[in-house]
Write the structure tokens for this entry.
Amino acid sequence: MKTAVLLLLSLLGLVSATNPIPQYVIDLDVDPEHRYDTIFDVGPQFNDTVWSFYNQLAGDGPLLNVLYKISDKRGDYNEEQQGEINGLARLSKLPVEFVQSIQMLYELQTIMVPIVNFTGTAADHPAVSELLDLDQDYEHLLRIPWRGPGCTGIIALNSDDGSVSHARNLDFSPVDVMGNLVYEGIFTKGGQEVFRSQMIAGYTMVITAYKAGQDGYALERNTRYGDHTGSYKEMVQNLWAGRDLNGWSLRKILESTSTFDDALEQISTVPYTSTEYAILSGVKKGKILARNPDNVAHTQTLGENEDGDDYIIITNFDFFWKDVREWFDPTGGKGAFHPRRVYAQKVLDAADVLTTDVLWEAINNEGTFADTIFQAIINVEQGLWNISQPF
């Protein structure tokens, strides 16, 4: 009902169905500590929001102490990223430790209430949820306020024109915080665009990115929950060992590669800190990689999908191994026992041709739409990078 009212008001010109996203240039030729100066100078609302988030975390002393404990044990990041972190701390006047801690938000949100998968998945890939066996202190991490599970990614072939489109929902709560931190970063070098990415203010890494070119590509990151007991412990150990975070590794790949195949090879082999999905679309091709820290656990390839040749899809669960946790995901509009993926697929399966309009409908239907703070419709071949925030 709410969606219908908003649509009617939009048609009458009384409201906008989506909100514009502010755009800023991030010059990679500038010293890392000063790359974000302009963003915080002209976007003071970012500083107000990150301070409200800090105050919320500071009100939970044990949780903040655990985040700092992990950050202290990890130590400084690589020189370039640490320079950016120091600059963000200076601009916001937040503690450096706090800015370091929030860089780990994608990795740390892989925590999930343990639900054992009793559906009998393949012996080599048991989709068993994490059972925390670390120090009791880390149970505080279950109260992390940034969390999913969220996100939907679809790569689809338009059978009429042969092009490949990519649809993306980024679902991230708390919405009133994360939604106010979204911006588009245009990364440049030598005065030329290298790539562009949807960013979160205060966070130095890419989340959804676009690399233009005849063989360019678009990249989406989705949280993936561990597929074996002990995976969360492995993630924390990787944090402590100082591995580059997933988003930083992907950002460096975007800086250094120009083609889909080169990006795919590097994304397949670069060490990760935690489990994650990489959704990669290009000119007439697409892949979805289910990454473990040290290898690729599973690959979906557009045109080779057992459920049909015209699309591949992922949310946050290994549905291809019948991960029962998908059915306990409460985030979609229909609630638990109604997976977001299922409702997106209903829209896709009902369409004769998978146009960008169909993909837009798929990520906006009630069953799929969740705590969505960012949406994208992308077609690399057509130079389409259409990004927005829900009204």
Observations:
- The CA atoms of residues 131 and 337 lie 22 Å apart.
- The radius of gyration is 20 Å.
